[in-house]
């Protein structure tokens, strides 16, 4: 069966995901070492050990994301995170940085290493480089690939692949985007944040609500309409005569219907985005995806519409997987 | 400190490329990386101009490297990347795909799209053969100083993005085509209509970004005119100047004057405002609260 890898932003979400049927959860420490470094999220060392014990007792695995790029002069913080993940009993660490991969391979050879999507390894040559140099065992693929490209990659590599199937969608190559730091000074690579709330300001201006990030207007919405969070690449901008979502429509990824194709493409694990989500949301998504991968494994048709409620009022896309961008 | 010219980010035709490198050969720059690093679809239109440009630059005494693609997904792109490594010139690695094809120990350069954020990564690349690394533009001065010191120890020259619209993001999706309601495969090369990128403003008319095919850049032109002294003190070996239209060779000369102490940073900055596309400068990544910030007079 394809492994279902589920987000756990908090210990409560970890327990909810495991209870709902996650084969594995991924989570991070509460600092800048992981790419979801949001206030109120993530795990202390004690919570991590407790989470691992809870998951292992129920047959689930825990993958610890240490996937920002260590700060020059500050690498010991990241080295400690790898050591502490191993001490907590983590089943793998998810890494992106060359230097940190080299460190983990040398000092923690028994700790399984996954390559984070933040490393943006988008073809067999790049993946094989990471495999040979650092003994990476699984690669989380960038969301810029189609199912056919994923299948082609799997034919040329010897390690497992994991792909995102549900949740928020980065349309830029992950780990290679500094839009957020251009506007705010804080970036996914350095700080584990994108379009941080600390730099968001809303202002009522006439009949509209303007949402700004670092002083740049990202959206203007009618005052009583729902105002989307001003994530930079999902904003509304003007270029020449065109005004609209220049980079990305505000959609979320739902590749449920592509699960059979992804299975045929040789994908080992399906990943759900959303460490910032509530445990109720996580539990619901996990339950329906678990049903879907079990149906897939048994050769039954996928259950219909299980996730409709979660994406209600929100458009979804199969992203690059179905190649509509090409 | 000296000057490196990065590969051109934009889609120019072969005649424009030819004229550009002819003028650049006369400019006081130490080295040049040349090649298509943004979109492989553009390459057939100008690749025939590369060999002549390389020859001309080398004859003018400049070191030359071939730049690799920054995002490699297609088979054809993997072949192109492998071919680069076999071309006999130094390769500038813009994605680790290229590194896979460079024999261990063969010298190479590293471009700004490769994530070199810390000493361990720098040392790992140095052990593989890196002799020159242009740091990611978003790094603050404190990190630059640590990496420049690590570079000196490891025998790696550390470069900083010195001039040009900033490469902020790259995508599998082409925004230029999207703006024209075209899919990437049917783009009809519309990015060629905007030789410095197409401006994207906020709904309040703030100048913000430009799209350049699959790449998103800053609308402002980053300039280290006012930071050159601090970067030199930090141990930076070179400023990287990124091609733009207009009198780029003249801009190179003025940066050379700045490094030689014959022109002040303020004078250079003042002269650049009228010479860069869009007329706005920034230096906030090394020196300010955010990348878009400019430390000089508005």
Measured by DSSP, the beta-strand proportion of chain B falls in 15-25%
Question: Cα-atom Rg of chain A, whole angstroms?
Answer: 20 Å
Biggest interface and residues each? A-B, 69 and 72 residues
How much of the residues of chain A is beta strand, in percent?
Answer: 15-25%
The CATH class name of chain B reads Alpha Beta
Largest sheet of chain B: 8 strands, parallel, barrel
Helix/strand structural class of chain A? alpha/beta
Number of helices of chain B: 12
Q: Can you identify the CATH superfamily of the largest domain in chain A? A: Aldolase class I
- Termini distance of chain B? 27 Å
Number of helices of chain A: 10
Keyphrases for this structure?
heterodimer, A: 326 residues, alpha/beta, TIM Barrel, 2 domains, three-stranded antiparallel sheet, B: 298 residues, eight-stranded parallel beta barrel, globular
Could you please describe the fold and organization of this structure?
- The complex is a heterodimer of chains A (326) and B (298).
- Chain A is of the alpha/beta class.
- Chain A is 32% helix and 21% strand.
- Chain A contains ten helices and 15 strands.
- Chain A has an eight-stranded parallel beta barrel with strand order 1-2-3-4-5-6-7-14, surrounded by six helices. Chain A has a three-stranded antiparallel sheet with strand order 8-9-10, with no helix packed on it.
- In chain A, helix 1 packs parallel to helix 10.
- Chain A is globular, with a radius of gyration of 20 Å.
- The mean pLDDT of chain A is 92.
- Helix content of chain B is 35%, strand content 22%.
- In chain B, strand 3 (63-67), helix 4 (75-85) and strand 4 (90-93) form a beta-alpha-beta unit.
- In chain B, helix 1 runs parallel beside helix 3 (48-59) and helix 6 (119-128) packs parallel to helix 7.
- The model of chain B has no long low-confidence stretch (mean pLDDT 96).
- In chain B, strands 1-2-3-4-5-6-7-11 form an eight-stranded parallel beta barrel, surrounded by four helices.
- The longest helix of chain B is centred in the middle third of the chain and has 14 residues, at 141-154.
- Chain B has helices at 14-25, 43-46, 48-59, 75-85, 96-100, 119-128, 141-154, 175-179, 228-233, 248-259, 265-273, 284-287, and strands at residues 2-5, 31-34, 63-67, 90-93, 108-110, 130-134, 157-170, 198-202, 207-212, 215-223, 238-241, 281-282.
- Chain B has one domain: Aldolase class I (TIM Barrel, Alpha-Beta Barrel).
- By secondary structure, chain B is an alpha/beta fold.
- Strand 11 (237-239) of chain A pairs antiparallel with strand 8 of chain B.
């Amino acid at each position: 069966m394809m492994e279902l890898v589920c987000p756990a932003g908090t210990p409560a979400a970890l327990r909810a995901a495991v209870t709902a049927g996650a084969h594995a959860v991924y989570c991070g420490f509460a600092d800048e070492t992981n790419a979801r470094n949001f206030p109120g999220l993530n795990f202390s060392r004690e919570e991590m050990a407790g989470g691992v014990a809870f998951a292992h007792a129920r047959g689930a695995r825990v993958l610890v994301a240490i996937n920002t790029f260590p700060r020059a002069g500050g690498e010991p913080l990241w080295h400690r995170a790898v050591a502490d993940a191993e001490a907590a009993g983590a089943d793998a660490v998810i890494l992106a940085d060359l230097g940190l991969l080299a460190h983990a391979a040398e000092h923690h050879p028994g700790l399984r290493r996954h390559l984070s999507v933040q490393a943006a390894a988008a073809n067999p040559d790049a993946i094989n480089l990471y495999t040979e140099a650092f003994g990476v065992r699984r690669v989380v693929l960038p969301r810029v690939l189609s199912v056919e490209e994923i299948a082609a990659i799997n034919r040329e590599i010897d390690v497992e692949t994991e792909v995102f199937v549900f949740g928020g969608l980065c349309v830029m190559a992950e780990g290679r985007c500094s839009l957020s730091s251009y506007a705010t000074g804080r970036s996914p690579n350095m700080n584990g944040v994108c379009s941080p709330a600390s730099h968001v300001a809303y202002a009522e201006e006439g009949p509209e609500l303007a949402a700004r990030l670092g002083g740049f207007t990202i959206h203007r919405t009618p005052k009583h309409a729902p105002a989307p969070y001003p994530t930079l690449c999902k904003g509304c901008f003007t270029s020449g005569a065109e005004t609209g979502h220049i980079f990305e429509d505000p959609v979320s990824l739902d590749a449920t219907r592509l699960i059979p194709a992804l299975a045929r493409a040789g994908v080992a694990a399906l990943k759900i985005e959303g460490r910032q989500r509530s445990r109720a949301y996580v539990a619901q998504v996990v339950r329906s995806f678990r049903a879907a991968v079990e149906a897939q494994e048994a050769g039954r048709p996928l259950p219909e519409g299980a996730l409709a409620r979660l994406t209600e009022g929100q458009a979804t896309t199969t992203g690059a997987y179905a190649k509509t961008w090409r | 400190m000296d000057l490196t010219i990065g590969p051109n980010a934009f889609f120019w035709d072969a005649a424009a490329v030819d004229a550009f490198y002819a003028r650049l050969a006369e400019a006081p720059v130490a080295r040049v990386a040349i090649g298509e690093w943004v979109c492989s679809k553009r390459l057939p239109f100008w690749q025939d101009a590369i060999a002549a440009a390389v020859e001309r630059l080398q004859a003018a005494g400049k070191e030359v490297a071939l730049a690799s693609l920054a995002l490699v997904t297609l088979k054809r792109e993997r072949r192109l990347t492998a071919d680069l490594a076999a071309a006999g010139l130094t390769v500038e690695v813009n994605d680790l795909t290229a590194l896979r094809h460079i024999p261990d120990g063969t010298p190479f350069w590293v471009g700004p799209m490769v994530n070199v954020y810390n000493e361990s990564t720098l040392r790992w690349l140095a052990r593989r053969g890196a002799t020159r690394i242009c740091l990611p533009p978003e790094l603050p001065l404190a990190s630059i100083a640590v990496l420049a010191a690590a570079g000196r120890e490891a025998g790696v020259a550390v470069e900083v993005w010195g001039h040009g619209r900033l490469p902020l993001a790259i995508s599998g999706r082409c925004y230029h085509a999207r703006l024209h309601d075209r899919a990437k495969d049917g783009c009809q090369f519309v990015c060629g209509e905007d030789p410095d990128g197409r401006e994207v403003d906020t709904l309040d008319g703030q100048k913000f970004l430009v799209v350049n095919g699959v790449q998103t850049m800053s609308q402002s032109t980053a300039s280290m005119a006012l930071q050159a002294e601090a970067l030199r003190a930090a141990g930076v070996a070179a400023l990287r100047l990124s091609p733009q239209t207009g009198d780029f060779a003249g801009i190179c000369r003025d940066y050379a004057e700045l490094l030689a102490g014959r022109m002040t940073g303020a004078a250079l900055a003042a002269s650049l405002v009228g010479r860069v596309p869009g007329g706005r400068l920034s230096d906030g990544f090394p020196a300010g609260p955010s990348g878009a910030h400019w430390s000089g007079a508005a």
